[in-house]
Amino acid sequence: MFKKMIVATGLTAAFCFSTVQMNIISSAIAAPEDCDYTDADTNGGWGWDSVDRQSCAPIGSDITPVSNVGPAGPTGPQGPPALTQGANIGVVAITATDINATNRSQSRVSPGATFTVNFDYTIVASPSCPGCIDQIQVGVVSRDGSGGPQDCAFSGVAGTAGVTDAGSVTLTAPTAEGTYYIAFDRAQAFSCEQANSSGNFWNGTVGVNKYIGAIAVY
To answer: What is the pLDDT of residues 50-91, one digit of tens each?
Structure first.
């Protein structure tokens, strides 16, 4: 009799434990249709059921739950423009830019360091002034085109037949780290010194159509 009571008690204990365990599992995994939650914004997202205290799909919904999407975050600054190989503004065409003898139009330069830029060019005089003295100004500018000329690759009378040659200039990198561009412009003065004396390119702020290379300063 004593042995039977032990067995019976043991079975009863095991059975009760299984029942409690099943109750916990069944209450934690409720069917979406049992939720007391209404999808007010109709986006199909799961919400918090305050009655059953659980996250669940909207009432009567069998769709795949999706996360709520908030407003778009801030975007970063616009990146630098893509460079094409060479540039042509009609009276001046430049190709084969080579920075610091790297055979590349883009290179790293230390802050404040001097560097060389070689390229091939063709320059022709304006039809309205075939005897004018022309210059090819070259300098370093920031992303927005601000900056000025530092040297000239050509200064002379190009004539209507034009001049095709290899040019070389020596420039100085800015002291502030960042990305900068090698830019050019056509000027008409008596000398390179006179053309560059104002510190500005002949036709004002240059655009990306006059960028012939880039340097990363750091």
So the answer is: 776 777 766 555 444 455 567 778 777 666 666 766 788 989
Q: E strands, 57-162, where?
A: 87-88, 92-99, 106-109, 114-123, 133-141, 147-157
What confidence score (pLDDT) does residue 80 get? 62
Residues 46 and 176: beta-carbon distance below 8 Å: no
Q: Domain with 161 in it: what CATH number?
A: 2.60.40
For the chain, the farthest-separated pair of C-alpha atoms sits apart, in whole angstroms, at 130
Name 169's Cβ contacts closer than 8 Å, sequence gap at least 6: 116, 117, 138, 150, 151, 152, 153
CA atoms lying within 13 Å on the CB side of residue 161? 1
**In which domain, by residue range, is 106 found?**
87-217
Confidence check: pLDDT of 148 > 60: yes
Answer yes or no: do 51 and 137 share one domain: no
